[in-house]
Amino acid sequence: MVPIHDTTIAILPVHLANQIAAGEVVQRPASVVKELLENALDAGATSITVIVQQAGSKLIHVMDNGKGMHRSDVELSIVRHATSKIATEDDLHAIRTLGFRGEALASIAAVAEVEIRSRRAVDDVGTVLISHPGREVVVRHQALEVGTQVVVRQLFASVPARRKFLKSDATELRHIIDAVQRAALARPDVRWLLKSESSTILDVAPADLPQRSAAVLSIERSEVASSLHEVSFSSSGIVVEGLVGAPSLARTTRSSQYLFLHGRPIVSRSLSHAIASAYEALLPTGMHPLYVLHVSIDPHRVDVNVHPQKHEVKFDNDQQVYQVVEQSVRAALQQSAVVPRMPQFQQIHPAASRSISSLPALPTAARTPSTLRDPVSPMVVREQVDLLFGRTQPEPARVFAIGSDLVGSVVQDGVMIVHVRRAHERVLYERMMERMTERDSAHTGSQALMFPVPVQLSATERQQLEELRDALEQMGYRFSLDTTPPSLTAVPQGIPGGAEQESLKALLEEVDHLGGSLGEQQLERLAALAASQQAVRSNQPRSTAVLQQIVDDLFTCSVPQVTPGGEPTYTLLTFDELYQRL
Ligand code: ADP
Ligand code: MG
Questions:
Q1: What whole-number distance in Å separates Cα of residue 206 and Cα of residue 195?
Q2: Highest mean pLDDT: which of 362-366, 373-377, 573-577?
Q3: Relative to the CA of 100, which ligand 1 atom is closest?
């Protein structure tokens, strides 16, 4: 650059500008790995090998069997904003490839020695390019296999400031492993091999997603079928596919949560919340579900160009995506719920089986969140239960306590064992839903509080409270905004004492996530929350008469099999099973 003396503003030398820009894309060795993997996938590779030394700071070598590059493209590839992936502005609004900004290789070349070896199938000879920061690049021909290899050496050697910020080799290697694992879960159809020094860290052949997930997340093969539940859901043009883990696979960290959009790993607080909320009562607080979920949507409805590392995305309709993702997980969990099989009622009453089979199936738009997707109508369930419990016979079945939380009852085919707290939760939930959705019974659904409960609200929560006042009153809440802090004077019936503020706050949070409206979904959430709080609180020794009542009530519910959170409420131990054991 020619020095310019009479002005203080100067154009940065290209090399320096690249180094600054590189800071956004290349923060650590794992970011280099991630970019190179994306390029290999964009080139259609079906087999990708990564070799690192000294956690990537000495060497990162990525080999792929993708389509390769022509000599002129190899030369262009390390030029900033040179990309083969988008040409027009419209392409930018509908990105289908992982890379598109054309700055990864240029950024890497600004802070490391880069060697690119590449050959296309149609070319007889391959190209080798060698680049050192601040020096002329060297390009020559060489005999090569089809595909591309990128070797990155001495990362950040020329940028000591950056090198200083790197963490220990162990930490940096962990980030690299994470990047490769994410890629391996994004693309189970690709063969992946990761080596650090001489040890093999990951070596996986093409597989389906469950097998790949098991391999990557160290889940026993024998456990795959029972503990990974398939998600396959589509609504409003949004497709959600993949796997969610059974509650038994939940961990105390979020380390086994993988979310992809069009094969690109993404981070989304909102969608993580959507998934977690589908688990609701299935997991204790502090436990995080395992998931590997792939989301796809019309590329025009999402912006991936909001961050240089491309892992943040912006949807045109966040709430809709939130709802679809939540529904998809909920449906998967419900479908796989361990729902006990009803005894064979044909044996009990042949006439009943005929009338049952002619009953209409449950509408597909299930009203309560835990409505099972099996086509069993509430009436059928009730009839079966009537038969089970012998309501048509003079002597009703009696219950007996087993331990502190279970009751048994001898029925036609065996012993039915009911989980009392969960059964109670289901009963309370359905009662509450009935009350809250009854049109003009705002008053009967409300219980006045003897002592108004002060509620500590943030400014936003208070704002929400005012906006939603009518809807909240319809539900049975009454509050006074004149006091400081505001106080609750009545709550919907069924909210247990002491949980008034908690229920309101949980509801406001829910409403916030779903975009400010107070619809049926929020009511369901509130009812589920209140039911589980109340069921837990009243979980103490009960008389047989009370136990009997809970069991009877359970089987008047429209969905007696599970709690609102999807936990099974009862199971049947058949006589066959019992005799087999004896
Ligand atoms: P982007 O991926 O955003 O286009 P990059 O700097 O990562 O930008 O890559 C620049 C270009 O180099 C790509 O558009 C692609 O044409 C080419 N390229 C990079 N890596 C590979 C590879 N492994 N195989 C084939 N072409 C590649
Ligand atoms: Mg790229």
A1: 18
A2: 573-577
A3: 3
Q: Which residues surround ligand 2, an ion (CB under 5 A)?
A: 39, 99, 104
**0.90 exceeded by pTM:** no
CB 222 within 8 A of CB 242: no
Does ligand 1 come within 6 angstroms of the Cβ of 32? no
DSSP 134: T
Report the distance separating Cα 21 and Cα 175, nearest Å: 21
3-state secondary structure string across 138-151: EEEEECCCCEEEEE
162: left (phi over 0), alpha (psi -120 to 50) or beta: alpha
Counting ligand 1 atoms within 8 A of each CB, the residue from 64, 83, 97 with the most, and so the one to mutate, is 83
The separation between CA 93 and the C-alpha centre of its own chain, rounded to angstroms, equals: 25
Confirm if 567 and 422 have CB atoms less than 8 A apart.
Answer: yes
Q: What pLDDT, on a 0 to 100 scale, did the predictor assign at position 85? A: 64
- Model confidence at 357: pLDDT above 50: no
How far apart, in Å, do the first and last CA atoms of the chain sit?
A: 92
**By alpha-carbon position, which residue is closest to atom 8 of ligand 1?**
102
pLDDT in tens, 45-85: 999 999 999 999 999 999 999 999 999 999 999 987 767 76
In this predicted structure, the answer to whether residue 335 has a pLDDT above a threshold of 70 is yes
Is residue 558 in contact with ligand 1, taking CB distance under 6 Å? no
Atom of ligand 1 nearest to the CA of 62: 23
Distance in angstroms (rounded) separating the CA atoms of residues 528 and 347: 36
Q: Is the pLDDT of residue 431 over 60?
A: yes
Any ligand 1 atom below 6 A from CB of 85: yes
Pocket test for ligand 1, best of 105, 111, 118 (most atoms within 8 A of CB): 105
Q: pLDDT tens-digit profile of 270-300?
A: 898 899 888 876 777 778 899 999 999 988 8
As given in the structure block, the two tokens for residue 106 are 């240029």
Ligand 1 contacts CB of residue 95 (under 6 A) = no
